[in-house]
């Protein structure tokens, strides 16, 4: 399983097709999902290990390691070894006129001396060709170590830098694929829309105050602080606990999260049915993003574009003057919450819901 972690998502998809597992994956699955499912399949089916090993060895992202230029230069500075002294002491090399043992020994001695001269000449030419003007320093035995060892060290540093570069490149490729898979999903678009609206509500109700005017700073603390610090600005968290903010959050949660999520969970058309006549209960998403966005769009239109009738005003006055009736109280909170939402957002939620509906429709229809 550790070997397939180095593959890209495209390679994992191709490997899944070769193993006949392409129908068990979705286009929106992340790379980690492919690694986990393929790893479990390899563990359960050991006979496919040779196929996987062969595929991994032929699809490695990293190019094969090559010897660095510095290492090649260092190796070129090493001196060639002395040629072996293999004498051909045959009858032809000694000469036909040699008849005594002394003459044979003399011929062998002359042959050895001539071969030594040839070897020394070969070493001199080789050293001069490698070292150029520095050939006169070759009589020192430590020259080879001084000239080649630093280059070997620098070569290893170069190789480690190249390895780190490939590791960093592979890391960014994996992260880019993960981010692209995450963003290229209708569920992610819906989530981004929800979080944007929520944080805008917080920003709208956010206020600054001073330490001296803050009610959540104890009076004992204020009395013991320096006088100059009492005018310092701090966040006023009291606005997040008043009736107006809580009503807006509650009404917005109902029309933007609760009801769309409830309906889209049961009315879900994202079931995958791709294995012949078998009916699978495998859903791409736990809720249908198209139904979610459509329900949110309808409820947002009702709240933000609905007309205020005379009966609404009458019920509001009844509750304000009498303070009786649960029905009038609930209707009053919804009435004020709807007005606050109109004041905060305007028509922005309608445009956002329409855009997310179109994106979800495009994503779901293009994947089938």
TrEMBL record:
The chain crosses the membrane at residues 245-269, 290-310, 343-364. The keyword Transmembrane applies. Keywords: Membrane, Transmembrane, Transmembrane helix. Residues 58-121 are annotated as: Disordered. Residues 73-99 have a biased composition (Polar residues). Residues 100-118 have a biased composition (Acidic residues). GO terms for cellular component: membrane. The keyword Repressor does not apply. PANTHER family: GLUTATHIONE TRANSFERASE 3. This is Uncharacterized protein. It comes from Pachysolen tannophilus NRRL Y-2460.
